[in-house]
Amino acid sequence: MSGMQGADAFASLGQSVRDALSERGFDHPTEPQRRAIPPIADGRDALVVAPTGTGKTETAMLPIFDALVDAEPEGFGALYVTPLRALNRDMRERLDWWADALDLDVDVRHGDTTDYQRQQQAEDPPDVLVTTPETLQAMLTGSKLRVGLESVEHVVVDEVHELAAAKRGAQLTVGLERLREVAGSFQRVGLSATVGDPEEVGKFLTGDRGCAIVEVDVTSQVDFRVLSPEIRSEDEDLASELMTSPTMASHVRTITDIVDANDSTLIFVNTRQTAEALGSRFKEIGANIGVHHGSLSKSARIEVETAFKAGELDALLCTSSMELGIDVGRIDHVVQYASPREVARLLQRVGRAGHRQDQVSKGTIVTGHPDDTMEALAIARRAYAGEVEDANIHHGSLDVVANQIVGLAMDEGELSARRAYEIVRRAHPFRDLDEETFKAVLREVNRNRIVYLDEEADRIAKSGGTWQYYYANLSMIPDEETYEVYDIARGQQIGTLDERFVVNFAEPGATFVQRGEMWRIAEIDEDEERVEVSPIEDPSGEVPSWVGQEIPVPFEVAQEVGRMRATAGPQIEAGASAAAVGRDFTGRYPADQDTVASAIERLEGHVDADAPVPTDGDVVIESQGRSIVVNACFGHKTNETLGRLLAALVGQRTGSSVGIDVDPYRIELEVPQGIRGPDVVDVLESTDPEHVGPLLELSLKRSDTLKFTLSQVAAKFGALKRWRGGDAVSLDRVMAALEDTPMYDEAVREVFHETLDVERASEVLERIQRGEIDVVRHGGRTPLGVSGRSSGKELLTPENADASVVNAVRERIKEDRVKLFCVHCRDWEQETKVRRVPDQPQCPRCESTRIAALSPWADEVVTAVRAAEKDDEQEHLTERAVQNASIVQSHGKKAVIALVARGVGPQNAARIINRHREDEDDFYRDILEREREYARTKAFW
After folding, report:
1. What is the DSSP track for 226-240?
2. What does the pLDDT read at residue 726?
3. Which pLDDT score, from 0 to 100, does residue 849 have?
4. Topology match between the domains 3-216 and 221-384
5. What is the architecture, at CATH level 2, of domain 398-472?
6. Residue 730: what pLDDT?
7. The model's pTM
């Protein structure tokens, strides 16, 4: 765009702002500024879609500052709404300079704002207030603040794409309509990262009132490559140093090489567990790399942000916590570790680099296993082509409707139900809300006594419970507990788990990844909100039951991976090597030949096994024993939908439950005896596609996912007090009580929206039944079929009961308490720590060495031994106590140590003690193995 056109953008601003621009050194506007400042200066609503770092904040605020200089509002002139408090802090710092230059006031208000500051803002409102969606909800109800809000002429919503995909955003859209009732019509400006449906996001922002959409073509400003590192000789040494695999060592080495080649690098990972695991490895080798994710404290996050911005850190390892526009200074390069899963996420993350006068943003996607590499290649090509996912707006969230009905009652004291309905429907996510559904929600909140409804008078009013409910539910983010994860082998906490994961996935025997290691659950203590776990001895032989919250891979991306297989498969069948096929692919995908070949090599093994290749148009079903795998390139949500459908209908045939595990390319079923591949084919070929939704809703009734979601929805309706998860009886009661209510309808809608894709799954069944998708069976397992469920394993530290673990077990047992009890005289007992037990325990009263080593809480054993007449249970306890004492008599303190260990009874203690060993460490290794075995099997005792 010419300099004259650029000048025109700034020329539309007043002299004061132009002078400030000159002082600030803004000679040339960025592309978003060139294109968006004129319509915003004209007072039009606008959506600006551009990468972070391209001056979007100034694009929105310079014309608004210009308007405020002239207007001199009595109250708040403009609101700047951000989804994160950290962004509030950032925006305040960025806007302060302009405000000072223009003699305007900027202030921040959020949950941590002091009472004094709040009072000052109410008495003397700043010209611009930076706030969050939740704080706006609170402001709308304050009498003094409502007076200040009357003068609002402009509202900027930052990171609007982030809010559009969440219930927080749906709540904000109604909040803006409530603000309109106070302030009248005001200008709305949205700032968004790249999305596939900017027109829909524009409607979300404005209530479908029309707006100027300025979309910067990010695809011409990014440059990235996909890289699957080769294992070099030095990686073997690094693997030994880090106690990890050579593959993982090659990833660490590759990333540090990229960091060394740049001044400042952001390293994005997909989960907090990966951030912790990778961060620990960088720390081991002394890399100058900080870690930043949402589980860290606010002070820890600010500390690393400041250090990185000051150049004191070479790189920042982060999760989605850094996707949004937190200012950490100039970034030269972005590393995405593992597939970014979505096109929008890749563009947003890589887009954080560069931005010095339209400089290209550079990034590298470092991948591991073949699925990961192919997926990253597909996403990279789609990113260059601008094929971005839609924003996935929550339409018709009924708990938001309930929440905002209460908000309207708080705003006005009382109003007609008709007017409340019309205000809610002005918000785009609720444009299709029918009157009958609204009335059902209204009756529900009336029944829950959080508003008063007079249907005859068509009147809603505050009730005794309105105030308390509203301020406890300013946010639509569910109120979830966190569970401590406690390693019973080391006797220490290793991390936390979200309540949703505990309820939906956790059970004794389940395995998961945390802190780069794999763990098996021994016990879940609901009262203490604690999950007891033990480390898995050989992770290489295990697959995690769950690895944490995964970003779902879209249908279109998985289909492209299928098309890549469909292209490569016939070439390999015709005798071409993976390297030769790789050469063919490099012209279409941003990767070198070796990287592409590494993704295709598994296809060679697949073809060698004479197995059909699963593609975008071919579903391959394979089975072995009780495991059936449906190889299907349909993405997470569609495969989850088909998997649940198959589990429900196959289980219905046998009356037994069917286990499922899903990734974007596979549905793995654990089936009862008698079920075979043809049964699965039959379900796919015979199920009416129109019945998918109703069948899934029926199957969901038995799922903890729906019960848990329903409990959270019910809380937002004011129907439940704080519910603590995990109690199946409580969950079932919740389900039974709420089944025929709007709460149940909303819970089903939310699960379908977040987890499933009924429309796509129905379409897949139609295509199968029309013969457009072939379903092929193959006996035995295939290289592609067995390669799922491994994405979390690359970061696992092999656990071989090394010296540190052995020492931890030894120290823990020494500090454990034990009850010593003489089974000879039955008069003496003593509770003490194991370290204080003598080498040969002896009764101080009768001098017998027949001393039982019992749990401190084993009062029933002592009672049983002392009883004159014993029932069967007491006889059993007495017998075990005598066996216990016999082992202590024979082996002294060594027996006490073995018996104190978890799950080690007299027989196992005898086996452990009687084994011949090289040293004492082996004795503790045997104890540890027995504890792990107990943890694995405890659920069945």
Report:
1. EE-PPPPHHHHHHHH
2. 44
3. 95
4. yes
5. Orthogonal Bundle (1.10)
6. 64
7. 0.80
Residue with tokens 């974007």: 664
Beta bridge partners of 107: 129
CB of 628 closer than 8 Å to CB of 675: yes
In the structure encoding, which two tokens stand for residue 2, read together? 């010419």
What does the pLDDT read at residue 615? 95
Count of beta carbons in the 10 Å neighbourhood of residue 504: 16
Grouping H, G, I as helix, E, B as strand and the rest as coil, residue 529 is coil
Three-state DSSP state, 663: strand
CA distance 47 to 213: 5
Whole-angstrom distance between the N-terminal and C-terminal Cα of the chain? 74
Phi, then psi, of 252 in degrees rounded to 5: -60, -45
pLDDT digits (tens, 9 = 90+) for 672-698: 888 888 999 999 999 999 999 999 998
**221-384: what CATH class?**
alpha beta
CB 81 within 8 A of CB 108: no
Beta-ladder partners of 213 = 47
Neighbouring CB atoms inside 10 A of 713's CB total 27
Q: Cα–Cα distances in Å, from 223 out to 219, 334, 445, 617, 810?
A: 8, 10, 52, 31, 53
pLDDT score of 797: 38
In what helix (H) or strand (E) does residue 213 lie, and over which residues does it extend?
strand 212-215
CA–CA distance, 749 with 755 (Å, rounded to integer): 10
Chain centroid to CA 203 = 27
CA-to-CA distance for 210 and 763, rounded, in angstroms? 33
Q: What's the pLDDT tens digit per position in 779-797?
A: 888 888 877 644 444 444 3
Residue spans of alpha helices (H) in 226-369: 233-242, 246-260, 272-284, 298-309, 343-350
Span 729-742, average pLDDT: 78
| Helix residue ranges per DSSP H, 156-245 | 160-164, 167-183, 198-206, 233-242
How far apart (Å, rounded) are the C-alpha atoms in residues 644 and 571? 35
Dist CA 377 CA 393 (whole Å): 27
Report helix angle 15-24 to 85-102, nearest 10. 110
Structure tokens that stand for 634 in this block: 């349909």
Specify the CATH class of 3-216 in words: alpha beta
Name the pLDDT band for 798 (thresholds 50, 70, 90): very low
Residues whose CB is less than 8 angstroms from the CB of residue 191 and which lie 6 or more positions away in sequence, other chains included: 48, 50, 56, 57, 59, 60, 156, 157, 158, 159, 160
* Per-residue pLDDT tens over the stretch 451-497: 999 999 999 999 999 999 999 999 888 766 678 888 887 777 777 77
What are the structural domain ranges in the chain?
3-216, 221-384, 398-472, 482-541, 610-782, 803-940
pLDDT tens for 842-882 read: 999 999 999 999 987 778 888 888 887 777 778 878 888 99
The pLDDT tens digits of the residues spanning 270-294 come to 887 788 778 878 888 999 998 887 6
- Asked if 319 and 338 touch (Cβ cutoff 8 Å), the reply is no
What digits encode the pLDDT tens for the residues 517-532?
677 888 888 777 788 8
Question: In the β-sheet with 187-192, what is the strand arrangement from edge to edge?
Answer: 106-109, 128-131, 78-81, 154-157, 187-192, 46-49, 212-215
Under 8 Å between Cβ of 219 and 385: yes
* Cα distances (angstroms) measured from residue 139 to each of 169, 403, 420, 776: 17, 15, 19, 60
Please, which residues have CB within 8 angstroms of residue 92's CB and are 6 or more apart in sequence?
A: 106, 107, 108, 130
